[in-house]
Amino acid sequence: MPASRITSINLDDWDPLVDLKLKVDVLRVRNIGLESKNLFSVIHIYKNKNESEAANGFDISPDWKAVQDIPDDKENIPVVIQIFEKGLIKDKEVIEIKVVYNMERGEWYGDDYVGDDDGCGHVAENGYEVWFDISFNDYDGDGLTYWEETNVYHTDPRVDDRGSDVDGDGIPIEWEDKWGYNPLIWENFSSMDPDKDGLTNIQEWQQSEWLSDPFRKDIFMEVDNMVDSRGNLYGMPEKSKQLLYSSFTKHNIMMHIDDGSMGGGGEEIPYKEKITYHETNEIYWKYFLHDNITNERKGVFHYVIFCSYGAITRGGYSFQALDNLDGFVLAIQYIKDWRIRESQRELSTASLFMHELGHNLGLFEYTFGGIDNESCNTPWHAGWWKYANYKSCLNYRYAFSLVDYSDGSRVTNDYDDWGNIDLTFFTNSTYYV
Asked: Residue 205: how many CA atoms within 13 Å on its side-chain side?
């Protein structure tokens, strides 16, 4: 958080319109290793302790919240969020977050803050990640503190200013205030991308409902599906999604997969046993763009088609339907043909998903010799042994079985995928069709 945002001021009452209360919401808790556990939270606000009920799972969205009366004259309020695994004899603490909430600016700092690598309101440690929010009982509900409204923005603290865009730069006052921008000074947010994830600040604001962070990398995916000839959906298994989330969160990248949960994905595509390249493009235009070249999802979401078989005899391929490489196909029936057990299919779906996404992020056979190398397919080909150190789903040896990119640490015939992915590539591609 910018140091200039916080000053030291003594006031008798930080908001004379209300009896101040602080609220802490634990929005989501996730076990990165996908182990289901009984979890509960303990939230300390100022000098008070609030313990939640337990919830079970490996990715839970519990209704854990604590609301606590705080002294009206205290500028800085200590907050501690603890997540515990419930045990038969002894509970185990897995996450502890210590922050200080500042009543002058309505922000917090400490173990988590605006601009940190893994996102504000998100902490990952000890095999877990947690999303949370802290707020106060603002009189007019716009989230701006009384001090900000009267001393900085010169707005009425009794009038809700949400949606106001005084400087005319296309983003409302509450978003600019939350992320440390000045709502009174025009900025070219349509060209700003501070985290270099390919999303401008305008687009980050548009996706804020899904916890998009302008200072932490986000990847948005839309998945649409065919239904097979027997009426079964070629859907994305929950385990496949979770494997992908875990792989990316380890590198401070938050992946968002919309297969029906975010208002755009999960559309049913008419069944055809095998689709051609031309039909792939038609699907992109009809089900992703909805025949609207200015569709707001273009340039924000990668587009994924789950079908039976694609235009090539593979588990998937990337495609360029318009101006950039922002789509790919997964041939789910092809995967099922090669993998019998459901657990194997879940793993392979995630692995091939990540493989094709790697192309959308700028990694190709001309980037490194171990990528999409046919000689890596079987042990009787030279590439299988030559690129054995390249442990990446982009290596055909490990496609179907590995949900990860390589970090290049094995030196010989290895490559640092993670260090070379370009999250902006899908918006500015140089690619051959």
From this structure: 19
Instruction: Say how many C-beta atoms besides its own lie within 10 A of residue 230's C-beta.
Output: 6
| Cα angle 251-256-259, degrees, rounded to a multiple of 5 | 145
Sign of dihedral through CA atoms 45, 49, 53, 58? positive
| DSSP classification of residue 233 | B
Specify whether the CB–CB gap between 342 and 350 falls below 8 A.
Answer: no
Query: Which DSSP string do the residues of 200-220 spell out, in sequence order?
Result: -HHHHHHTGGGT-BTTBEEEE
Same domain as 395, residue 319: yes
CA 115, chain centre distance (Å)? 15
Residue 59, number of CB atoms within 10 A of its CB: 17
91 token code pair: 């509970």
Residue 413 token pair: 């015939």
Distance CA 223, CA 420 (A): 25
Give me the half-sphere count of Cα atoms (radius 13 Å) on the Cβ side of residue 8. Answer: 0
* Distance in angstroms (rounded) separating the CA atoms of residues 193 and 424: 10
**Residue with token string 């000890």:** 126
- Residue 258: its H or E element: strand 253-258
Let me know if residue 269 belongs to a domain: yes
Angstrom distance (rounded) from CA 353 to CA 343: 15
pLDDT at 12: 86
d(C-alpha 429, C-alpha 1), whole Å: 33
> CA nearest 393: which of 405, 385, 383?
405
129 within some domain: yes
Average pLDDT per consecutive 10 residues, the chain (433 residues; last block may be shorter): 49 92 98 97 96 97 96 97 95 98 97 97 97 97 97 97 97 98 97 98 97 98 94 94 98 98 95 96 97 96 97 94 95 96 97 98 96 97 98 98 98 97 93 51
Structural domain that includes position 63: 3-137
What is the phi/psi pair of residue 375, to 5°?
Answer: -75, 0
Q: CA–CA separation, 417 vs 49, rounded Å?
A: 45
Cβ–Cβ under 8 Å, residues 170 and 58: no
Predicted TM-score (pTM) of the model is 0.94
122 shares a domain with 14: yes
Residue 289 inside a domain? The answer is: yes
Q: How many domains does the chain have?
A: 2
Whether 161 is in a domain gets the answer no
CATH code for the domain of 35: 2.60.40.150
Q: Which residues contact 344 (CB under 8 A, 6 or more apart)?
A: none
Q: Which of 227, 247, 204, 219 is nearest to 351 (CA)?
A: 247
30 and 59 in contact (C-beta within 8 Å)? yes
Classify 229 in phi/psi space as left (phi over 0), alpha (psi -120 to 50) or beta: alpha
